[in-house]
Known about the structure:
Helix content: under 10%
Largest sheet: 13 strands, mixed
Structural class: mainly beta
Number of helices: 2
Radius of gyration: 34 Å
Amino acid sequence: xxxxxxxxxxxxxxxxxxxxxxxxxxxxxxxxxxxxxxxxxxxxxxxxxxxxxxxxxxxxxxxxxxxxxxxxxxxxxxxxxxxxxxxxxxxxxxxxxxxxxxxxxxxxxxxxxxxxxxxxxxxxxxxxxxxxxxxxxxxxxxxxxxxxxxxxxxxxxxxxxxxxxxxxxxxxxxxxxxxxxxxxxxxxxxxxxxxxxxxxxxxxxxxxxxxxxxxxxxxxxxxxxxxxxxxxxxxxxxxxxxxxxxxxxxxxxxxxxxxxxxxxxxxxxxxxxxxxxxxxxxxxxxxxxxxxxxxxxxxxxxxxxxxxxxxxxxxxxxxxxxxxxxxxxxxxxxxxxxxxxxxxxxxxxxxxxxxxxxxxxxxxxxxxxxxxxxxxxxxxxxxxxxxxxxxxxxxxxxxxxxxxxxxxxxxxxxxxxxxxxxxxxxxxxxxxxxxxxxxxxxxxxxxxxxxxxxxxxxxxxxxxxxxxxxxxxxxxxxxxxxxxxxxxxxxxxxxxxx
Length: 498
């Protein structure tokens, strides 16, 4: 005999033995099979190299013996007789593993009648509800231990049924991250996380600091300090530190500076900006080292949907505290009619639970107007410059999100040949206002993170081009578009058009 499988089964299940020299027919062979001494009564198949039997009633776990024509063979591996599953009609937890760990560890809960969807399932660790349920099947739930959990029983609630374990999950205190310095930085810059009880026994190569879309191995780790460079793929979000498989620790919120720019001097691509949207026969294309937007009014007249009014480009800007943008704009006489009103040329779009514009720059009879609002209420507007025909005009806008009077917007503009704007003399300043809407981490930070209670992240993004109200074909040119996530010290100089 060479082997048998499976190595465990229920009474009545089939087990297959493979080898050679069994004989072609059982009728011609004196063949007997014993499961830990209990003889098989049902042979399913029998050949010289393969015997299939059913586990007999009364069988117990242990080695299997084959007696064929007086020769006796005993399996090296023991066979396990499985217990039949009980008939369970109500919610039941039979155990969980591991039985101790840290916040953000994954725990597997075993039992019955959990369902097949995370919807309607609530898990609490000693009364603290888990934010993340990884998966649910009828007999198994995988869940992440919530931040703030303490030692105690696990409670599983499925619809209206609830079950609390008698065993306690032991939640170890472990490491904590208390601060990060600086609180915002560019990719590639070194930052320091400060805390307590960092695991210096975990190899440095197994430690990861996570920045939303990217992670990095620290430069160094001590018992209370981690130094790490912000990875290129990192983005604004709450930081997490993975100490190998030992513990995951939640850190503070961190903002990553990101710059999206194109001066349109390198071919036909206008990446990192993408159409958002552009409906034919309207077009966006690079022409003579600038970005040309052509809006065809007939497309709107034929199909008067709101999205048809846009001929814009967007980027992956995700500002949750503050940001900037700058560009040059040019109105070509003959291609952009006189006395046009209502042409939005740059939008601050509040992505999230209530996706809508939060601020925009528009052209009203060749005047630049900045509008902004909070909580979808009527906008506040202010003029900040002129846009004469056939001249390039530079525009810079700063915005700071905020509620309870902590937000702010500023705008600068100047015509080519004039003295550029300077940081401390904006052409328009909103003063302290409410700006932006959605879920908030605090009065100055939109909540860009998706959780069980915040199903859509909130942040400010940007669009450039034309959103049109005027009933005519329009052409407009842009150059040197820049959008900056965050507010570094030299932000004005970074986004200022050249």
